[in-house]
Amino acid sequence: MAVLFATHVLLLILSTATTLHFSASKAARLNMTCSEKERNALLSFKHGLADPSNRLSSFMEINLDTPVGSPYRELSGEISPSLLGLKYLNHLDLSSNYFVLTPTPSFLGSLESLRYLDLSLNNLNWISRLSSLEYLDLSGSDLHKQGNWLQVLSALPSLSELHLESCQIDNLGPPKGKTNFTHLQVLDLSNNNLNQQIPSWLFNLSKTLVQLDLHSNLLQGEIPQIISSLQNIKNLDLQNNQLSGPLPDSLGQLKHLKVLDLSNNTFTCPIPSPFANLSSLRTLNLAHNRLNGTIPKSFEFLKNLQVLNLGANSLTGDVPVTLGTLSNLVTLDLSSNLLEGSIKESNFVKLFTLKELRLSWTNLFLSVNSGWAPPFQLEYVLLSSFGIGPKFPEWLKRQSSVKVLTMSKAGIADLVPSWFWNWTLQIEFLDLSNNLLSGDLSNIFLNSSVIILSSNLFKGRLPSVSANVEVLNVANNSISGTISPFLCGKPNATNKLSVLDFSNNVLSDDLGHCWVHWQALVHVNLGSNNLSGEIPNSMGYLSQLESLLLDDNRFSGYIPSTLQNCSTMKFIDMGNNQLSDTIPDWMWEMQYDRNVINPSQYLMVLRLRSNNFNGSITQNMCQLSCLIVLDLGNKSLSGSIPNCLDDMKTMAGEDDFFANPSSYSYGSDFSYNHYKETLALVPKKDELEYKDNLILVRMIDLSSNKLSGAIPSEISKLSALRFLNLSRNHLSGEIPNDMGKMKLLESLDLSLNNISGQIPQSLSDLSFLSFLNLSYHNLSGRIPTSTQLQSFEELSYTGNPELCGPPVTKNCTNKEWLRESASVGHGDGNFFGTSEFYIGMGVGFAAGFWGFCSVVFFNRTWRRAYFHYLDHLRDLIYVMIV
Ligand SMILES: *[C@@H]1O[C@H](CO)[C@@H](O)[C@H](O)[C@H]1NC(C)=O
Ligand SMILES: *[C@@H]1O[C@H](CO)[C@@H](O)[C@H](O)[C@H]1NC(C)=O
Ligand SMILES: *[C@@H]1O[C@H](CO)[C@@H](O)[C@H](O)[C@H]1NC(C)=O
Ligand SMILES: *[C@@H]1O[C@H](CO)[C@@H](O)[C@H](O)[C@H]1NC(C)=O
Ligand SMILES: *[C@@H]1O[C@H](CO)[C@@H](O)[C@H](O)[C@H]1NC(C)=O
Ligand SMILES: *[C@@H]1O[C@H](CO)[C@@H](O)[C@H](O)[C@H]1NC(C)=O
Ligand SMILES: *[C@@H]1O[C@H](CO)[C@@H](O)[C@H](O)[C@H]1NC(C)=O
Ligand SMILES: *[C@@H]1O[C@H](CO)[C@@H](O)[C@H](O)[C@H]1NC(C)=O
Ligand SMILES: *[C@@H]1O[C@H](CO)[C@@H](O)[C@H](O)[C@H]1NC(C)=O
Ligand SMILES: *[C@@H]1O[C@H](CO)[C@@H](O)[C@H](O)[C@H]1NC(C)=O
């Protein structure tokens, strides 16, 4: 008995991957007669192995449940021929251990009755002797260089399951000669590097194939019509490839298909109507393709369908009423399509088992009676950017299993009914943003992990929340009163709140002193309220804080030194307040230590504009080498601009080591929630909201101070800078000659200083410049010729009486022409040729750029997205439907 059990244990523990290979029936087969000989064989096998975690010390005491990522180290060493003693062994699973050092245990080939072998990460040839092998799992082995694997394996006539997942196979050439896969039922080639068309010989391989798994490869081209020869196939998984073209009608002949997953490819066609013949189908996933046309009405024949996912395509037309008869449907996902028209009660009549309803991002609207009693109990209700309103959907009241509800931008203009807040207590994720919902939040209690009520008409005081709440976003409403009762209400709870966004309300008074109870906070946005008083010392307890946005309030006093403890801070926005004193020195040190491998501290945004700070900007500022936004405008700073600006590596286009500046994903199983920082910036003339594109912004604004001295020439090293505003200071000297090297500059405002000299010729290289203000200086000479510099209105140059040449009206004298030609043409006097050369360069560069990057940089919608993030105004949570 002990050995019987030991055999069982051994097989299990040798697989540090999941133990799924080991089915109950196979375990039963092990329960055979066993002798002393076999016991010795096992022990001897054990002695041949290095067992650093001592997992084999006693076969009896080993924990069978060895999760992936467990601290156990892999077994390695020699596989002893003693296994030959186990002559009835028919299931051996050694996957994900490390036997590579050992020469191929060729003796395994003499275990004639072995029927189940899982020996990943090993090599191959000896396998061909295991002629009774039925199950072979080589997943994770590197077969990239084993060109003959197909030949070797095709000599196993009994093989019924072959798993070759993640084997780095990049080519499935046709087999040389005849294959013997007459019993093959399962073929898994997923997660390889197959970079070719689906080879048609695959469909000839075995008449018995039941499961073909090719997902997550690089397969291209169309699915061949001949796929219909897989007459017994039940599970066909081709997702995550690059397959394209139309879907073959012949797929409709695979009448045993239960699972058909073609998602995440680039199929461009209507859904073939023969799909309606797939009457055994349980899962049909065609999401993330480019399917067009309408949803076939004949889908009503797919009576066994449980999952219908057509999301993220270009389907048009209405949702056929006949879908409402699919009485086994559990998931219906039609989100992100061009579907339009109304969805009525009849679309749902028989959907008794529906649990997931995903209709977001369509042009559909729901048209049901107020007393509608749906036949289903939903768990996932995703109806954002979908027409529900103007009335609040009363039918939700009887849905008692909902876990996720999103109704953002659903056109609801109504008072939230009194039952609703109690109803939400059990919901995990709630998003009602961007509607015209009204109601008083003063006395409600919220318990969901994620609560997004932003951009509505809610009023009253702040709601109270349970310790479960992780995200609370009530931005952009009319909530009033003070924050203290909210913060101080539950002093001993272990609050999980990570994201708190109360921005754009009418909150007043000070911030209270209870921040100590909210130490999980990562993002705090209190911008645009009527808050006043000092920034409390207790904010220093927020040791995980990454963003602190207090802009547009009436805070006064100084920045408390306790904030130094927030050592993961990345975003600070305290603009437009009445803070005074100097900018504390420690702020310039919120910078990562170059000796730390994964630095968590690197200030990216420092925005203190429009306060009452005084003093000067010290050289220390340049330590903030990860800054993407430095906005110290409109204050009383004096002194000169430090000449170390080139140390700001991110602005200089070096050191972009961070991938995502600030994101917060909620939970692990919800892929549709993602937090992104929003910032209101004034890159040119107007204030704009930046969210998704914040990562692309590089901005320095030191305008409206009392800065003096020259613009340091180091500034021209900031080749990634896009927006530079130094206007309204007392700067003197000349414009640095090399500023044309700031190739990405889109906006340059130097107006209202005392800068003199000529406009450097290099400025004509700034191909992206779309805003320029050089007015009111003592600039003189000719404006350099380029497509860019002449495209601005004269206003950009006014107040410089000595400037000449287009676009200003003053004509240049001969002397000025010559002066320019001398500087441009390096004194050769041939100014016509030279300036044409420069013009040509400008146009040529612009044209080249247009061709090369037009999709990204000049695409109209992208441009609009980049500059006008007003659409999702202050909507901090980004909902993505998958
Ligand atoms: C193995 O055999 C024993 C005794 O014959 C029996 O009690 C046990 O249920 C069997 N185990 C399996 C998995 O069949
Ligand atoms: C296929 O299997 C038969 C026995 O079942 C054997 O005779 C033949 O050689 C095998 N063919 C190949 C190509 O291995
Ligand atoms: C499939 O097999 C048939 C006969 O078995 C053969 O005629 C045909 O050429 C094969 N097709 C491919 C693509 O290998
Ligand atoms: C689509 O497939 C690609 C690989 O081909 C993968 O990188 C990507 O994450 C997949 N996208 C989705 C939405 O599954
Ligand atoms: C289903 O298959 C039958 C023949 O097997 C065919 O006549 C019919 O047109 C098919 N249905 C659709 C919707 O293609
Ligand atoms: C679907 O898209 C393809 C390729 O763009 C186009 O040729 C075809 O006409 C479209 N079909 C429908 C029904 O819109
Ligand atoms: C909410 O539930 C509580 C207890 O479950 C109950 O006392 C209260 O009346 C309910 N409120 C509303 C508005 O239904
Ligand atoms: C709050 O939510 C948790 C689960 O997140 C749940 O267990 C608990 O019952 C809820 N509280 C109330 C009062 O409904
Ligand atoms: C709550 O916390 C305060 C201060 O941390 C402590 O004095 C008080 O005893 C705590 N109350 C309870 C009920 O634990
Ligand atoms: C500038 O020169 C053009 C001709 O080259 C002439 O028509 C124009 O009147 C001149 N403008 C001024 C302000 O002298």
TrEMBL record:
PANTHER family on file: LRR RECEPTOR-LIKE KINASE, LRR RECEPTOR-LIKE SERINE_THREONINE-PROTEIN KINASE FLS2
Lineage: Eukaryota, Viridiplantae, Streptophyta, Embryophyta, Tracheophyta
SUPFAM superfamilies the record matches: L domain-like
UniProt entry keywords in alphabetical sequence: Cell membrane, Glycoprotein, Leucine-rich repeat, Membrane, Receptor, Repeat, Signal, Transmembrane, Transmembrane helix
One Pfam entry name: LRR_8
Membrane topology according to the record: Single-pass type I membrane protein
Family, similarity comment: Belongs to the RLP family.
InterPro entries per record: Leu-rich_rpt, Leu-rich_rpt_typical-subtyp, LRR_dom_sf, RLP23-like
UniProt protein name: Leucine-rich repeat-containing N-terminal plant-type domain-containing protein
Ranges annotated as spanning the membrane: 837-858
Top-level taxonomic group: Eukaryota
Signal peptide from the UniProt entry: 1-19
Compartments (UniProt record): Cell membrane
GO cellular component, one term: plasma membrane
